[in-house]
Design goal:
The protein is mainly β. The protein contains 1 helix and 8 strands; from the N terminus they run αββββββββ.
């Protein structure tokens, strides 16, 4: 009985761990929502997908610089190797005053090796009252980041 329970728990743990779980670095370019043509230098971000369906993201620069808060959101499996996510990020001005927020909806497709990914993004920008100011698209790529092992 104990062996059956242990095997069931082990199989359940493997089933719960989606291949997207872990830390990633991505590079996303602004893109025309109709044609898909990209422009600009793009932005880099670090994002971590947690096994419980939560997501944390931090931008690493854009042009022009747009100060933001830590992005928090959720993700779910949308197909074989495809994941949908939504992240909300606060926007600040140069003095650190809250100016509104962005909502990033993303479709992420993992490569077969599960070490790289492709992204399709829609970004909605809102003011402090929640009024939609603009909607933009983007596309990009990312790579899995190896996490360091703690010293013993």
């Amino acid at each position: 009985m104990a062996a059956v329970l242990a095997a069931t728990l082990s199989a359940g743990a493997r089933a719960d761990r989606a291949p997207i779980v872990g830390a990633w670095k991505s590079h996303i370019y602004a893109a025309d929502c109709e044609s898909g043509d990209t422009s600009g230098d793009g932005i880099y971000s670090l994002h971590t997908y947690f096994a419980d369906g939560k997501l944390a993201e931090i931008g690493m620069g854009s042009s022009p610089v747009l100060p933001t808060t830590l992005g928090l959101g959720t993700w779910k499996k949308a197909g074989k190797g495809v994941f949908a996510s939504t992240v909300q990020v606060g926007i600040m001005d140069a003095d650190g005053n809250y100016q509104g927020y962005m909502v990033r909806d993303r479709m992420t497709t993992l490569a077969r090796d599960k070490q790289s990914l492709e992204l399709q993004v829609r970004v909605n920008l809102y003011n402090t009252d929640g009024q939609l100011l603009s909607s933009n698209c983007g596309q990009g790529t990312g790579v899995r980041l190896p996490l360091p092992t703690p010293l013993s």
